[in-house]
Structure formats: C-alpha cells, structure tokens
Design goal:
Layout (H helix, E strand, L loop, with lengths): L12 H5 L9 E5 L5 E2 L5 E2 L2 E8 L9 E5 L25 E2 L4 E2 L4 E5 L14 E2 L4 E2 L9 H15 L4 E7 L1 H12 L4 E7 L7 H16 L8 H4 L4 H15 L2 H7 L19 H14 L4 H13 L10 H4 L6 E7 L7 H13 L3 E7 L13 H18 L3
Parallel strand pairs: 5-8, 5-11, 6-7, 11-12, 12-13, 13-14
Antiparallel strand pairs: 1-4, 2-3, 4-8, 9-10
Helix pairs in contact: 2-3, 4-6, 4-9, 6-8
This protein binds acetyl coenzyme *A and L-homoserine.
Length: 396
C-alpha cells in the first residue's frame, strides 16, 4: 500500500482482513505449518499471520531498525493515514521525516498485535479447522505471545538486533517483555506510560468493558460474525468507560467543564445534555467502526495477564538480570491508569539489576493518552534518547 492511500474497505475492516493471505492495506507475513507460534496458553497457533507497516529504509549494516509497539486499540498504521478512519497515524506526533523517531534515518516497523483486528491473526480471523471466524475458539493470547510473534516478524525481515523498541501503555508492556525475553536483540528500550504488571484497578476497568460487550445480545457468545450481528452497543459502552480512564479530571474539565451540548438548559431527559456526554458517545461510536469486539476481549485480557515479575520468581529485577539494554522510562503526572509509581517500580528493578536506566516524569494534564498527543518535553526526551542510541551504535 502506498503511504497516504485511503481506499475505503467494502466490508468491515476486520472482516476484510480475516484470514486472508494478503491484507489490502499493509504488508503481511504468513507463517505456515513449518513455523508455528507457541502460545503461553499451551499448544501452537498455526498458521498465523502478521500485518505490518514499515517507514524509512534499513541500512546496509541492518543496525537502524526501531520497532514501535502499539497500545490497546492501536495498529500498524503509526505514521500513515489510517485506511479505516482516514485520520493520521496514531504516532505522527513522534514518527516521520525529521521527527524524534526520524524515518529519514531509521527503519521503523509497526505491526498489528496478535489478537488484534487489522490483519494480524485474531478472533475475527478464519479458523482453519472450521473455515469460520475463530471467535472465542482462538486461545487467549498474552503479551509474551505478541512479542514472540513480533520476533518471528523480525527474523523474517532479517533484523537480528533492534536499535530500539518503543511503545506506550500496552505497547510499553511489550517493550518490557522484549527486554526480558530477547535482551540481546534490543539495544535501547523506551517503555512509556506503562507498568510491569496490570493493577487490580486496571483489571477491574477491563472487566467492566468486557462485561458490556458480552451483555450485548448481539455478541451471540462471540459468534456474531457467523450470525451476522454486531455487538456495537456493548463495545461502544466499553470504550466510553475506558476512554474516561485515558483522560484526567483536569483535561475533562479543561475541554468540557459542565458546558451543555447545543442547548441552553437541561432537557430533563437522558439525552446528552452535557458536552462531555456527547463527546463520550462520539468516542464510543467511532470506536466500533474501527475495532472488533472479540479483539477487545482478547487484547484487554492480554494486558490483565501481564505480570513480568511473576515469570521471574516474583522478583522484577530478575527479568533484567545481566541486561545490557539501555532504558528510558517516561510517565505523565496526570496519568492515573499507569502512574509514575508504576514506572518507578520498573526503574528500581532495573537499578537493582544494574541496568542502564533513565527516567522522566512529564508534567501534563492530559492523562494516560498524553503519550499520543503533542507534548514538547516528551518529544525532546524521545529525540535525545533515540539519537544517543543511534550515536552509540554508529547509525548516521
Ligand atoms: C495508542 C495506539 O497505539 S493507537 C490508539 C490511539 N487512538 C485512540 O485511542 C483513538 C481515540 N482516542 C482519542 O481520540 C484520544 O483522545 C487521542 C489522544 C488519540 C486524541 O486526543 P485529542 O486530539 O485531544 O482529541 P479529543 O479527545 O479531543 O477527541 C476529538 C474528537 O472528539 C470529538 N468531539 C469533541 N467534542 C465533542 C462533543 N462535545 N461532542 C461530540 N464529539 C466531540 C471531535 O469532533 C473529534 O472527533 P473525531 O476524532 O471523530 O474527529
Ligand atoms: N487510547 C489508547 C491507549 C490506551 O491505553 C488506545 O486506545 O490504545
């Protein structure tokens, strides 16, 4: 696909993407029976495929590759116009020619996660055993499974070591997992607005969202693609609730306060009187046009299961033992979902492991989603960290 191509999909995008060897909007690598993916849930996933985008060029030494890991509802369209929404890629604030992650200098890779719905195998993909969408027959996947699949993509691309792996939120979990699972493949790691384990509060929010999806009669026990329905209302409510957690009290107040939506007074009804209600309804409705409900269940579950220390005897530092990767962690002051304390816990573990680590807490009122928005200090830190890594490995 050419950058900027906004061809409209004729079918819902996740139906168009499911199980096909090719994806209309991204490069796809398909792993057959000779390359099964071992899953933490047990067993192997085979065949499976990964949809990805690349930006910039790989240098002759193959030393300038940067992997971007996306958050819960992101995808591979980090720095190109999104084929479904027609909006800019989710990280165009940071990624592009001359930007902090400079595609004139670096070969940037972004792939859709396992369990997702934009071309990588997920619950809307075709189950080869039945010829129908997997639905809930797809094994539950983990962050480690996602990263294992990404490592196979890198093998396919002929990249032995990444200059950097970078991501926020669930993307940051993948960054931490990369550093733990494949330390020799990661020169620099930037986990942003993330944590080494999902908190009880965050699992609780996810469970509310999943219950909203599953309570929608159109969910049909996960078989809605086969039955020709779509749990739009449930997924929209899930997104509305989640979206509140991505913002802060301050940013909601700054954007909307108690202002009314296109009216002079209360209607004494349950219409969206307040701007903030109208805004949330819009976020919910926009989401169902670009995301698959079952993928929402799988990807939130992967985050819930993430507890890196648990895989290393309960001691997070052991996950980074002997690591030569250099780390830069970033948190945002108003992020109450993945707090500064969560990042500090990782920094402490890295210090205990003797790893190279720097940490920045950015002052912002934008809440968790600050990492997706224009934040000059965040951009400057990213540029500095990536440039220093590039200098250290001799990337021009
Ligand atoms: C991280 C990844 O890997 S990818 C996933 C990232 N993308 C998302 O999460 C998408 C949904 N999230 C958002 O939109 C996030 O708030 C952000 C951070 C990405 C963008 O934030 P901002 O640029 O501040 O946008 P904001 O939150 O104000 O939302 C703007 C939208 O709300 C709409 N809106 C604003 N006020 C109102 C209102 N009173 N009533 C109805 N709609 C409203 C705007 O029209 C705009 O709609 P559009 O997106 O369809 O054009
Ligand atoms: N709002 C972003 C970040 C959530 O962690 C997303 O939907 O992916």
């Amino acid at each position: 696909m050419a950058e900027g191509d906004t061809t409209t999909l004729e079918r819902p995008f996740f139906e168009a993407a499911r199980g096909e060897a090719d994806h209309p909007h991204s490069a796809v690598v398909r792993f057959g029976a000779d390359a099964p993916l071992p899953l933490d849930a047990g067993g192997m996933l085979s065949p499976f495929q990964i949809a990805y985008q690349t930006y910039g060029a790989l240098n002759a030494a193959r030393s300038n590759a940067i992997l971007l890991c996306h958050a819960l509802s992101g995808d591979q369209h980090a720095a190109n116009v999104h084929p479904v929404t027609g909006k800019p890629g989710w990280w165009e604030t940071l990624v592009g020619p001359g930007k902090p992650i400079d595609t004139d200098r670096f070969f940037v890779i972004a792939s859709n996660v396992l369990g997702g719905c934009l071309g990588t195998t997920g619950p809307s993909s075709t189950n080869p055993a039945t010829g129908q969408p997997y639905g809930l027959d797809l094994p539950v996947v983990t962050i480690r499974d996602m990263v294992r699949a990404q490592s196979m993509l890198l093998d396919h691309l002929g990249i032995a070591r990444l200059l950097a792996v970078v991501g926020g939120s669930m993307g940051g979990m993948q960054v931490l997992q990369w550093a733990a699972s494949y330390p020799e493949r990661v020169f620099a790691a930037m986990p942003i607005a993330t944590a080494a384990r999902h908190s009880a509060q965050n699992i609780a929010f996810h469970e509310v969202g999943r219950q909203a999806v599953m309570a929608d009669p159109d969910w049909r026990a996960g078989r809605y693609l086969v039955e020709g329905t779509s749990p739009r209302r449930g997924l929209a409510v899930a997104r509305m609730a989640a979206h509140i957690t991505y913002m802060s009290d301050g940013s909601l107040h700054r954007k909307f306060g108690r202002r009314l939506q296109d009216r002079d007074g209360h209607t004494f009804s349950f219409d969206a009187d307040f701007q903030v209600e109208s805004y949330l309804r819009h976020q919910g409705e926009a989401f169902v046009d670009r995301f698959d409900a079952n993928s929402y269940l799988y990807v939130t579950r992967a985050m819930d299961y993430f507890d890196l220390a648990a895989d290393y005897g309960g001691v997070l530092a052991h996950a980074f033992k002997g690591s030569r990767t250099r780390f830069c962690l970033v948190s945002f002051t108003s992020d109450w979902l993945f707090t500064t304390a969560d990042s500090r816990a990782v920094v402490h573990a890295l210090n205990a492991a003797g790893a190279q680590v720097s940490f920045a807490e950015i002052d912002s009122d934008k809440g968790h989603d600050a990492f997706l928005l224009e934040e000059p200090e965040f951009s400057a830190i990213t540029r500095g960290f990536i440039d220093a890594a590039a200098r250290a490995v001799g990337v021009a």
